[in-house]
Amino acid sequence: xxxxxxxxxxxxxxxxxxxxxxxxxxxxxxxxxxxxxxxxxxxxxxxxxxxxxxxxxxxxxxxxxxxxxxxxxxxxxxxxxxxxxxxxxxxxxxxxxxxxxxxxxxxxxxxxxxxxxxxxxxxxxxxxxxxxxxxxxxxxxxxxxxxxxxxxxxxxxxxxxxxxxxxxxxxxxxxxxxxxxxxxxxxxxxxxxxxxxxxxxxxxxxxxxxxxxxxxxxxxxxxxxxxxxxxxxxxxxxxxxxxxxxxxxxxxxxxxxxxxxxxxxxxxxxxxxxxxxxxxxxxxxxxxxxxxxxxxxxxxxxxxxxxxxxxxxxxxxxxxxxxxxxxxxxxxxxxxxxxxxxxxxxxxxxxxxxxxxxxxxxxxxxxxxxxxxxxxxxxxxxxxxxxxxxxxxxxxxx
Length: 398
Ligand SMILES: [Zn+2]
Ligand SMILES: [Zn+2]
Description:
4-stranded mixed sheet; two-stranded antiparallel ribbon; 13 helices; 10 strands; 13% strand; binds zinc ion
């Protein structure tokens, strides 16, 4: 340890380690491909394979999305994957290949990837191969002006048709604006349907006459047996009623034998002051590695209908997706919301969603990596030429 590291030894050490990192990346990609094939990531509020990997590996979003992109193309890119397993190319090089190279050119491109830097690869491949199949689905024109509403079972259906293109454009812009506002507020998954609901929220919230706004409230009835149904409409699935009453978006009317007994419990709706406190404390959805931060719902850890108080020690922020998933029973939440690391999320079998890391196993013996790295020479893209793999029909070529 006393000896100073000289340039040659440093270069050798870093090179060997880089090759070993590449080999481990290859193993991680192969496992990821299997995770995808077997749907092993799904459930318990995990949004995607990427989300699963982000929680399990602790890597950032971009690295994780690279791993997944490559994993999805493993069977199509055997040559470059072989090089990665040998430790002869890096994850970043393979990622560029997976992004741009058609399967029919996999062999030639892999050959080039060995000697090119990441930016040379990007420059060389992005210009050489380009997407050809961008198909657009044409929209069907509508004729009459009408709004049809039907609600049955678990489905609500609204159809709006008009031959007045200006009125149609107005409705469209209103929905798009509302969707965009949700997006800007942090709900990156807001759809046009969410936009339409948002338009409705705003319109009802803008009513100033209290008697009028009362007339157009959405009421949900809850009885002592735990049944719930929408006012003048059918039964509500439990998880839907729980989620909306938790948020204070529905006004519950307690009933016994069909007769209202009281209108809610005081303090059910999270007061603005407490809400701001919780949002500021949590700064985002508390589910592991969830990136929703702007559009948040405040959840009662002990559900409000089970007597949970509206108090910071019982409240936490969740995005609408995870709030919904939790009330559907995908995962449970334990612990103390007031502590920044105080919560544990478990799947329906009781397993913690965040990794419990055992002692690292002893390092397995791998063949030494064949690490050379890019040549670092200047690249003239006009001299690039890739041949399709032998046996490729001419139509499959880019
Ligand atoms: Zn809730
Ligand atoms: Zn979330």
